[in-house]
């Protein structure tokens, strides 16, 4: 009315292009491309994720925000509460405030959302160029919660929905799997399997039977770790060994005795973790345990580096191992050892099968049976059957991993996968040499089987008849 009287025009024109409503209740929520990420995940269902208008752009926007949140250069050196309203305006402040507030929490939220979106919209998004980055970050991050979120993301990248029924989804997963395998992903997942041995808060099947050879037979936590307080070359000096001046001084200061090799130990992993927290051990301190040929810096050993991770994880160690097993099985099935058309065995075998069957990975998969967790035992036996059935050289040496004894010590009732593996392997072991194992003339079943000296021959016949 005032504008009309002043000659500004007969009708006012509303500036709708800059109209917006600020909801203070949502001010702390992470909003990307018009989607409130946490609220999307809180009510997570495939149907809600399917309704995203442009899942490809949303997925890449999440990844961009994930990268921005890690930029240390965006952190403000001053207290944000001291800034006036005019200083809080603009995109630069918005990004900096998010990074300054809680970047780790935001990064975890972005990764969780990326996993949820990719699992449903793999075809629309296509192969992900950030697979090498996600793989490296899964290994190197200090945040346990972020590591678990990255594991979920990689699971979605390798095992999206309908990967077994839709050829387009299969092609996308295959591209992601190739990048993952090329950047050390197989070995990384095998090391994640070993995390299951830390799940001591859950009683394995048959844990009360302490008179059997099982993981629960050991009442005391083993002490097997040593560290070099004066460095790996410290023992070359007499003063750094037991009885030396430096060693005596170190013992008075810390209460830790140095042996003749310039090492402190043996210590349990809990002791190592406590020493790391107090600063006695850092990422460059050399450590050693039985079985290691030479000492190595603390930070280069995944087992120890992950142990001292920051914060609490969102997954139980058994769940981490279960997810890793599923991903390894999917990697092995994406490129099977036999040609899909002719059913002939491929030569050479696919990379994933070769990597899993070497001595770097095979013992860790076999030792997973020692956890006594039914899901892990069945998964490990199934994976071993997949990668060894057509790999005669590796299968012939399976007995060296101790798998047969681990399997016989298992007290669970889900024996289908274990029996199938034993049937595949027990007659093909070269435990008496290759020439003797291949010569079956005049030999009984007990003579030919690796289990012949352990089980009655009648059970071996049962295994041959009903093992699979």
TrEMBL record:
It comes from Tetraselmis chuii. It holds the Pfam family GYF_2. InterPro entries: GRV2/DNAJC13 (IPR044978), GYF_2 (IPR025640). GO terms for cellular component: endosome membrane. This is GYF domain-containing protein. Residues 260-304 form the GYF domain. GO terms for biological process: endosome organization; receptor-mediated endocytosis; regulation of early endosome to late endosome transport.
């Amino acid at each position: 009315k005032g504008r009309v009287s002043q000659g500004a025009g007969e009708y006012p024109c509303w500036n709708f292009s800059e109209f917006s409503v600020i909801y203070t209740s949502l001010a702390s929520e992470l909003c990307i491309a018009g989607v409130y990420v946490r609220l999307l995940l809180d009510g997570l269902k495939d149907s809600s994720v399917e309704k995203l208008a442009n899942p490809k752009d949303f997925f890449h926007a999440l990844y961009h925000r994930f990268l921005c949140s890690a930029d240390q250069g965006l952190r403000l050196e001053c207290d944000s509460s001291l800034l006036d309203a005019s200083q809080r305006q603009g995109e630069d402040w918005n990004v900096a405030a998010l990074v300054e507030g809680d970047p780790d929490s935001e990064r975890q939220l972005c990764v969780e959302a990326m996993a949820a979106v990719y699992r449903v919209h793999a075809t629309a998004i296509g192969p992900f160029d950030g697979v090498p980055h996600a793989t490296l970050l899964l290994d190197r991050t200090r945040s346990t919660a972020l590591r678990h979120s990255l594991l979920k993301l990689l699971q979605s990248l390798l095992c999206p929905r309908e990967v077994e029924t839709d050829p387009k989804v299969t092609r996308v997963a295959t591209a992601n799997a190739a990048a993952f395998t090329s950047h050390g992903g197989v070995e990384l997942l095998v090391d994640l399997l070993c995390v299951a041995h830390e799940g001591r808060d859950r009683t394995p099947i048959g844990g009360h039977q302490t008179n059997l050879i099982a993981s629960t037979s050991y009442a005391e936590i083993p002490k097997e770790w040593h560290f070099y307080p004066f460095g790996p070359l410290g023992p070359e000096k007499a003063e750094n060994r037991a009885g030396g001046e430096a060693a005596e001084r170190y013992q008075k200061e810390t209460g830790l005795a140095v042996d003749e090799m310039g090492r402190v130990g043996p210590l349990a992993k809990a002791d190592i973790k406590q020493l790391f927290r107090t600063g006695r051990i850092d990422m460059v301190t050399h450590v050693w345990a039985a079985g290691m040929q030479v000492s190595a810096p603390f930070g280069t050993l995944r087992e120890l580096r992950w142990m001292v991770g920051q914060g609490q994880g969102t997954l139980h160690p058994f769940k981490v191992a279960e997810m890793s097993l599923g991903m390894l099985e999917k990697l092995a099935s994406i490129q099977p050892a036999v040609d899909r058309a002719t059913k002939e065995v491929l030569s050479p075998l696919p990379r994933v099968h070769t990597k899993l069957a070497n001595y770097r990975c095979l013992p860790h998969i076999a030792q997973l049976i020692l956890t006594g967790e039914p899901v892990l035992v069945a998964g490990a036996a199934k994976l071993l059957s997949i990668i060894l059935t057509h790999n005669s050289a590796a299968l012939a040496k399976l007995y060296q991993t101790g798998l047969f004894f681990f399997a016989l010590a298992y007290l669970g009732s889900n024996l289908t996968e274990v029996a199938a593996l034993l049937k595949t392997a027990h007659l093909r072991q070269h435990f008496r040499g290759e020439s003797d194992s291949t010569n079956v003339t005049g030999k009984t079943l007990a003579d030919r089987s690796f289990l012949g000296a352990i089980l009655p021959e009648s059970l071996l016949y049962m295994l041959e008849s009903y093992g699979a």
